Amino acid sequence: MQAAIAFGADPQAAGAKPEAAPAKAEGAKEVSPAKAETAPAKSPTDVVAKVNGTAITRLELQRATEILLAQNRAPQGLPPEVRKQAENAALDQLIDAELIYQTAVKREIKDLDKQAADKLALGKAQFATPAEYEAALKSNNITEKELVNIVRKDIVINTLLEQEIVSKITVSKADSRKFYDDNPDKFKMPENYHASHILLSVDPQAKPEEKQKAREKADAVRKKILAGEDFATLAKAESSCPSKEQGGDLGTFGKGEMVPEFEKATAALKPGQISEVVETQFGYHIIKLIEKKDAGLVKYDEAKEKIDNYLKQNQMQKAIMEYIAGLKTKAKIEKNTL
After folding, report:
1. How confident is the model at residue 289 (pLDDT cuts 50, 70, 90)?
2. Domain 47-164+318-335 class in CATH
């Protein structure tokens, strides 16, 4: 239930100038401006909103805002007006979540404690030591008890959404096929290659005799391959590329993803063929083409699963928003100035 932030432009029109101050009336006395009132200090316990009487605090809003900014990969030092937009979006999320929770909590979840414990354990497992976990809690200004409550609330909300919305969403084959037929540009596939290689690396600034030595070794390795030795085994033993751990397998790549010399040599091969020794800025390569796919459209059967997931996601988001809108018609929501 995360909403994206629409980072808006500066509302001040570009180049607009402030109106000139009115001329002081002749004979008027100078009046000292009153001191600006000091704004009251903001406290983490300040209530920023209430949902049917349940308070949402500034601390909760700060946490939600930081999560939202991280999800949107927002840079540090955002302008105040953009930060404000993030806070408003985060507050809307918190209100929506509270609305759903107040409905969902009325339902019994028999294994809620176990689910929460398991989810918390998974989170802890991401840290190398208990000390790192404690440091992460401290840096986020949260206690483990508070984290447990957040996890429990998340499970309660997601359980309701699964039961009431997600489980009821289906995508027909006709809808899936129609999306495929109506959006051919989304399924264009450029020419691509699946290849393995063995790299005998050499510094571009190496002396001629060092380059010659590397080239001779590459020629020797290639002869072993042509004589019947296993390419993957030789890659693990001789290659200096990290792909050696996969027997030299580079996976699939398209045009422009490799240096020109490597790409040209790969394109000239037929599946199963071994290239001549190819020199690039990295050294000397021996390439084996595994598969070549011509440019064209991804077949419907290959794309169907992704299409279905995409359409389900769209339906789910729409259904959740409609569900929340229905809850809001019966709720009392109060927002305070941030």
Report:
1. very high
2. mainly alpha
| Euclidean distance between CA atoms 70 and 63, whole angstroms | 11
- Residue 278 forms beta bridges with which residues? 285
d(CA 69, CA 5): 8
pLDDT tens for 174-187 read 999 999 999 999 99
Alpha helix (H) ranges present in 171-299? Answer: 173-182, 208-226, 231-238, 260-267
CA 235 from chain center: how many Å?
A: 34
**Residue 123 is encoded by which pair of tokens?**
């989170």
**Residue 56 exposed, middle or buried by CB count within 10 Å (0-12, 13-18, 19+):** buried
Please give the angle made by the CA atoms of 237, 243 and 246, to the nearest 5 degrees: 75
- pTM for this prediction: 0.62
- Residue with token string 């993957």: 232
Confirm if 223 and 181 have CB atoms less than 8 A apart. no
Annotated domain spans of the chain:
47-164+318-335, 168-187+298-312, 191-294
> 191-294, what's its fold?
Chitinase A; domain 3 (3.10.50)
Q: Beta strands of the chain (E only): which ranges? A: 47-51, 54-57, 188-189, 192-201, 249-254, 278-280, 283-293, 296-297, 333-335
Tokens 């939600």, residue located = 64
